[in-house]
Amino acid sequence: MPSRKFADGEVVMGRWPGSVLYYEVQVTSYDDVAHLYTVKYKDGTELALKESDIRSQSSFKHRKSQSSSSSPSRRSSSRSRSRSPGRPAKGRRRSASQSREHKEDKKKTIQETSLALPVLVLFKPSENNTKRYNGEPESTEKNATSCIILEQKLKPDLEIKRVLEQYSLRSRKDDKKKEEIYSEKKTFVAVKPIEKVSTKTKEMEFGGRIGTFTLIFFLPATVFYLLLMCKQDDPSLLNLPPLPALESLWDWRVFGVVLLWFFLQAAFYLLPIGKVVEGLPLSSGRRLQYRINGFYAFILTAAAVGVLLYFEFELHYLYDHLMQFAVSAAAFSLALSIYLYVRSLKAPEEELAPGGNSGYFIYDFFTGHELNPRIGSFDLKYFCELRPGLIGWVVINLAMLLAEMKIHNLSVPSLSMILVNSFQLLYVVDALWNEEAVLTTMDITHDGFGFMLAFGDLVWVPFVYSLQAFYLVGHPTTITWPVAAAITVLNCIGYYIFRSANSQKNNFRRNPADPKLANLKFISTATGKGLLVTGWWGFVRHPNYLGDIIMALAWSLPCGFNHILPYFYVIYFICLLVHREARDEHHCKQKYGLAWERYCQRVPYRIFPYIY
């Protein structure tokens, strides 16, 4: 094995990757396996460089011009007068040589000076460091239209450099060496990406192994408990429902319907309709492609349900067997989770989820070991995120509406049921219409696909989110039109905050220089992204969460105040979003560093203004 050349703590000159400029750096460590030096620049950026990209400081000292070594007598042209007129004057030949040497030494001095004095504005070292904020100007708040490419200001300097190289008087040997330097493939790896790919998950969430093991049993039990409570005449918390017989919880025909529903939605997903977009870059730099056709799948599903109703299919069958449907969906999600974990054991290291690579079976099984499991071009996580559960939620709500009309002999649904169905239908249609926005969420970019998301998408969303409609079937609630109008206004306010905040964020991410966003101000970050400090994102840090919670309250209010059960959703949702906000806070602090701290100082409230 070759021995290392530079010691830890030694101050040397490190070449900035992709350029010919050298910066003063300090060696912090050396990897004997990869033969890479970890060096730290003055601005705090840490990179892993090869030994060929590091030079000692002594090699950058200016060398004295050799053109002055000639004696004064030789530089004098007086002796040329005694020579034959037919011979060229030595003084002239000497002066031409001196001129060449003078130009060459001057050029060397310029080149060495350009190496010793790096032009920092040409490169952005801070963009390679995601743990610490570097390179931020004194005034970090900018308008979206004020982003100017600094390289344009340096065009005159670059042109001078190009001309000097074009008319260089150096030998061909030197030029050949320079070409080799430029043509050599320089590989460098930033410290952060290396850790992201090869290091196990160190910070475990959800209570670690014990917490995730508990949640695997607690989440299904919660769903079954809520459904049993809604069937009670008195759904009080202290009035525990009797446990049903085990054989009554399973029906193979119901399980077949669940499978049919899942594969029907998968068939809609595979249809060659809708645009294809690219997701965010993965750790390897690759971008996955996604087909955006969720809204078309919803239209096709609505048409299929309409056909069933036309042929007098009794959709309220879902109400009578809702517990069996929930058990079948839970069994299917468990089987899917096992499949996902088994296949993830053969997945390459770079395809594993950053938060689900702990090495502990229970934790990785729950959080998801593989980030984007795919069967060909079929993305399992992306498909389950919106299709089966979200569209199934609307179908269950419709079944509850029809069941209410049949059980209570109503010619039209109750006003409370209409409000609940309408509010939640708007929410689902909005999510499917803006399907592309889900590609930037934490579920897609960070969380793996395991039991947590599989059970959440296929069981929790359709059977818990429809709790208000299920409750109203057995516990009808009468509300007046003024109350209904007030609840509708509240839902519209929540929806406006939710949609406008998300649209503002998504438009800014796509094109920060859009003239329509000229009034928005942001704080620059080390990653090159901006943190909005005006608009909704200058009001609270997560205005979309605020809108979500307001809508959740509006969905529960039509159920009245006789029992707390229909308010489980809004209580759970507040806990969920507060926990997710804490996860976001942790990730953003690691990603944006000092810029995130400045953003928090500018926007002190997280979700609820003047409260939290």
TrEMBL record:
Its EC number is 1.3.1.70. SUPFAM superfamilies: Tudor/PWWP/MBT. It is found in: Cytoplasm; Endoplasmic reticulum membrane; Nucleus inner membrane. One of its GO terms (molecular function) is DNA binding. It is a multi-pass membrane protein. Residues 4-62 form the Tudor domain. GO terms for cellular component: endoplasmic reticulum membrane; nuclear inner membrane. Signal peptide: none annotated. It is an enzyme of class 1 (oxidoreductase). Belongs to the ERG4/ERG24 family. This is Delta(14)-sterol reductase LBR.
